[in-house]
Amino acid sequence: MKRKYEGLAIGIDLGTTYSCVAVWQEQYCRAEIIHNDQGNRTTPSCVAFTKDQRLIGDAAKNQAAANPQHTVFDAKRLIGRKFSDQVVQDDIMLWPFKVTAGVNGKPMITVKYKNQEKQLCAEEVSSVVLTKMREIAEAYLESPVKNAVVTVPAYFSDSQRKATIDVGNIVGLNVMKILNEPTAAAFAYGLDKRINCVEKRNIFVFDLGGGTFDVSLLTIKDNVFQVKATAGNTHLGGEDFDNRMVSYFVEEFKRKNKVDISGNPRALRRLKTACESAKRSLSYLVVATIEIDSLCDGIDFSASINRAKFEEINLELFNECMKTVESCLTDANTDKSNVDDVVLVGGSSRILKVQQLLQDFFKGKELCKSINPDEAVAFGAAIQAALLSEDIQNVPKLELQDVTPLSLGRSLVGDIMDVRTRACDNNLLGSFEIVGIPPAPRGSHASEVCFSIDENGILTVSVKNNISGTSNEITITLSHERLSS
């Protein structure tokens, strides 16, 4: 029987670019998205530091062009990672703020706050955003909130999941459960459309957000949600489409004006904001125009991009999305013709090329757009939070059977277990020894290895030698890197 928690509980989608919070409303028997103090239902996952104050959300994003080096975004792309990771090194080349290697290779973000230089880890930055989301909920509910279900990309590693729990610990928030984002979206869709279906339905969730991409194939029958397979890329999303547009227009500006703005953080921030707006416009316009006054050295910049050019410069990313779709169906041993519903989640799922590729792949099947792609994950997280709350009685009794998205393996003395082609591309989670095994001919010893995954996706490994009876166990944690509240 699942543990139940006392007190108010909320669902939080802690996104790369935007975050969203929701709560189960018992009187209406449904989840509700909570708007922030600006009246917006999503909040930028952005934190800015000035000589006077710290800004969060809309206020931080609105001043980013004037204060690029001390406005931090994309913190989720650093959570649970090492400074030496190639994706981190690639991102550093694009970010205006400074990232350096800290203790044990932990990425540290350098900002100036109240005229003092400070170093922050990604978890600390994300904790500021998480605090903001809790404050938004508390202002609406007029009561303290101590419990939350927080969502993560399905393809988050063990260390990234642990780090997300740490974000909650920092702000004193009890993270009741870490829920995979596409699974949360399936909850939202199932409650809205398929909660009472008697026949088994295969639901394919396509979740393309601001910084991460996940797909999952689930079956829904009699209120049971069973995840058959999941696939994804924790470094593919709207930010990457924006960055390619920025590179395209940097070259355009250079060609027209013989000025290179690639080393100008303020100009790049203004250009990126314009590119994000143009990208959204191309979901309903054939041509989008960018106009920025005095972009650099007093030079005004006016340019346009049509939908075909946008699709061309991002073709590689679109193809990567579709490879992931195929991989998920292969892992589930399911033919695409057996998929009943294709559900779009995440703001970047609005891109028309994405929708066209999906519809073509699924042989013209109508895509499900009935749930708000920006809010579905938080909506589903609120449902899960209600299911784990003692005080709520009228939430539908949904049952979740999830899968672990990444392969697990073990190696004896020697190289790391080889799932990917190169050992260096695999992620070593931990190691330990078993002592007291008596000498014996090769192959005569047998040891039993048990992998145990809890509901948050946290891994425990135990080993027992069947001859000597000796055993050992390890729970994978962030050890000395682990943060406290």
Please tally the β strands and state the result. 23
Instruction: Indicate the low-confidence ranges by residue numbers.
Output: 413-424, 478-485
Instruction: Tell me the overall shape.
Output: globular
The structure class reads alpha+beta
Evaluate the radius of gyration. 24 Å
Count of separate structural domains:
4
Q: Determine and state the CATH class of the largest domain.
A: Alpha Beta
In CATH terms, the superfamily of the largest domain is ATPase, nucleotide binding domain
What fraction of residues sit in β-strands? 25-35%
**In this structure, how is the largest beta sheet organized?**
6 strands, mixed
Number of H/I helices: 11
In helices, the fraction of residues equals: 25-40%
Mean pLDDT: 89
CATH architect. name of the largest domain: 2-Layer Sandwich
- Kindly report how far apart the N and C termini lie: 29 Å
The fold-level CATH name of the largest domain is: Nucleotidyltransferase, domain 5
Brief account:
The protein is built from 11 helices and 23 strands.
Question: What does this 3D model show about the protein?
Answer:
The protein is α+β, with helices and mostly antiparallel strands and 485 residues long. The chain folds into four domains: 196 residues, ATPase, nucleotide binding domain (Nucleotidyltransferase, domain 5, 2-Layer Sandwich), CATH 3.30.420.40; 97 residues, Nucleotidyltransferase, domain 5; 76 residues, ATPase, substrate binding domain, subdomain 4 (Actin, Chain A, domain 4, Alpha-Beta Complex), CATH 3.90.640.10; 59 residues, Sandwich (Substrate Binding Domain Of DNAk, Chain A, domain 1), CATH 2.60.34. It contains eleven helices and 23 strands. The strands form six sheets. Strands 1, 2, 3, 4, 11 and 12 form a six-stranded mixed β-sheet that branches. α5 crosses α11. The longest helix is centred in the N-terminal third of the chain and has 20 residues. It is globular and about 75 Å long. InterPro entries: ATPase_NBD (IPR043129), Heat_shock_70_CS (IPR018181), HSP70_peptide-bd_sf (IPR029047), Hsp_70_fam (IPR013126).
